[in-house]
Design goal:
It is built from eight helices and eight strands, in the order H-E-E-H-H-E-H-H-E-H-E-H-E-E-H-E. The longest helix has 18 residues. It has one domain: Glycerol-3-phosphate (1)-acyltransferase (3-Layer(aba) Sandwich), CATH 3.40.1130. The protein has 221 residues and is α/β, with parallel strands linked by helices. Helix 1 packs across helix 2 and helix 6 packs parallel to helix 7. It has an eight-stranded mixed sheet, sandwiched between helices. Helix content is 35%, strand content 18%.
Amino acid sequence: MQRSFLEETAATAIIEAARLATGAQALWKGCAPEARQRIYFANHTSHGDFVLLWASLPRYIRRTTRPIAGEDYWYGTKARRWIVDRVFRAVTIPRVGDPRQAIARMQTALEEGSSLIVFPEGTRNMTDQKLLPLRNGLFWLAHMRRDVECVPVWIANLNRVLPKGEFLPIPLLCTVTFGAPMTLRDEETREAFLARAREGLLSLAPRHIGSGTGAVSEIAP
């Protein structure tokens, strides 16, 4: 679906705001930015997380990549609803009720050829833990589409945790690190796959400010 001039202008403004507010850098450590269908799964500490990840993708990938967003927050106002539906083209899901409904919506988006941005913790992590337990949705997506790569992504604010309730993070240095793709192995159990996905995420978490190596680029224009 082609964006209107207003929608394209809003997308550009959001990307520029993310760049200005965070100084974010995209680090492709385990894979290259390729125009192929993928499931990007990331840690989650702020409503601004998927904005940063989406904005970190090159334009040619961003056009076919749809974030997963909670209806309860993004449909809270008309402005947020317009942004999530018309600018991000997100797959909105209810965070209460039957989880099969959420999986079905994500499966439909995959069958339509979209890549997805998902947060398998299921909610923002406001604890002292680096990562909450991963929920089952990522496994079921990998099970239904074994041909689609799952790419771990770690969103790090190198000075402090992204603040709760903020639309965009506060102006501090952030990195968005893309790790090595993975797919569901033959006869791999749900527990084993989620443990491997968790390990893939945690391996990308910076141990200290400035840690990590890889191909570095600013947020894509």
